[in-house]
Amino acid sequence: MTEIGSAPLTGDTMVGGDDVIEDARASLWRRWLRNPSALIGGIIVVLVVASAVISLVWTPYNPLAVDPSHALSGPSLRHLLGTDEYGRDVFSRLMASSQVALFVGFLSVLIATVVGIPAGLLAAERRGATGQVVLRLADILYGFPALLAAVVLAAAFGASKTTVVLAIGISYIPVFVRVTRSNALVVLNSEYVLAARAYGRRPLAIMRRHVIPNILTTIIAQMSLLFSLAVLAETALDFLGLGTAAPAASWGTMLQSSQNYLGNDPLLTVWPSVAIVLCVLGFSLLGDGISELRDVRSSR
Amino acid sequence: MSETPAIFDVRGVSKIYPTRSRRGQSVAALRDITFSVSDGDSMAIVGESGSGKSTLSRMLLALESPTSGTVSFRGEVVSGRSERELRDFRRRVQIVFQDPLSSLDPRMRVHDLLAEPLRALKIEVDEAERVRELLASVEMPAAAANRYAHQFSGGQRQRIAIARALGPSPDVLIADEPVSALDVSVRAQILNLLSSLVRDFHLTLVFVSHDMAVVRHLCSSIVVLYRGDLVEMGTTEDVFVSPREDYTKELLAAAPRIRAVRAAKRVGPREA
Question: Could you say which architecture CATH assigns to the domain B38-62+86-271?
Answer without folding.
Answer: 3-Layer(aba) Sandwich (3.40)
